[in-house]
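Table S2 (text version). Query chain:
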Amino acid sequence: MAFEHRLTIAAPASAVWALTLDVVELPSITPTIEEVELVDPAPLAVGSRVRLRQPGDKPRIWTVDEIEPGRRFAWSTGALGTTMQAVHEVTPLDAGSCTNTLRIELSGATAPLLRRLMAAKIRDNLAQENAGFARSAAG
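Corresponding structure-token output:
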């Protein structure tokens, strides 16, 4: 099962894409991320690792799974028998707007339990993150 939040943003896709890849600045974009540190040197590439801490959670290492320049970014982490993959997709609508889709996919032995326990928090976090992308891309 995946959780998804889609938002139309009044900013060029290139601006939203730049924010997506600037993971070190995520704490200034969204309250759902407190700290980000590159484990491997920039620029991000498939296999790059990033230490990320979210409120109320210990730091986790996220590994970049996929980068389709200008379009799609995916990274994943593991916890308690579950793999969590976060997918960011930017779709241009016209020169001045785009759709930003954020998705969390859970898989593994404990994924069904975590889905039930964390569904509301995951949905809220995705909405907050997308709102942060919209604010940052517009300003």
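Notes on Table S2: The longest strand covers residues 82-94. The beta strands are 2-9, 35-38, 49-53, 60-68, 72-79, 82-94, 97-108.
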